[in-house]
């Protein structure tokens, strides 16, 4: 392992000597290339940061909508339950109105869709963070 490290050290020293022995214009060209690469990476990082912030904001907004929808579903379920109890008290044969059921089912569908969208956004956010870390 020590020999391997010594060999790597010698290789690095060789690279340094090669850079020192290069003509000045090649050194400047290498510096410019490295500066350009650094600028590209900084730009990519800034873009990734903006995308991450945007996704975070959107995720929070969707979570608030989901909470609101869930609250509305609970309220409608409670209203439907009360209505069914009243109808059952009036007549055991009556079934809940079709419209109430449709509204309730639509709200449940919307909540499920929002949950799926949030999961997708969280996965995309995770992937972007991995890409940022990789860059």
Describe the structure.
It is a single chain. The protein has 135 residues and is an all-alpha fold. It is 92% helix and 0% strand. It folds into 2 domains: 10-93; 97-134. It is built from 3 helices and no strands. Helix 2 (24-90) runs antiparallel to helix 3 (98-134). It starts with a helix and ends with a helix. Keywords: Coiled coil. One of its GO terms (biological process) is positive regulation of canonical NF-kappaB signal transduction.
Helix-strand blueprint:
Blueprint: H1 2-21, H2 24-90, H3 98-134
Helix pairs in contact: 2-3
The CA-CA distance between the termini, in Å, is 30 Å
- What structural class do the secondary elements suggest? mainly alpha
Helix content: over 70%
State the domain count: 2
Count of DSSP E strands? 0
Task: Give a short overview.
The chain contains three helices and no strands. It is mainly α. It has two domains: 10-93; 97-134.
Question: Top keywords for this entry?
Answer:
mainly alpha; 2 domains; 3 helices
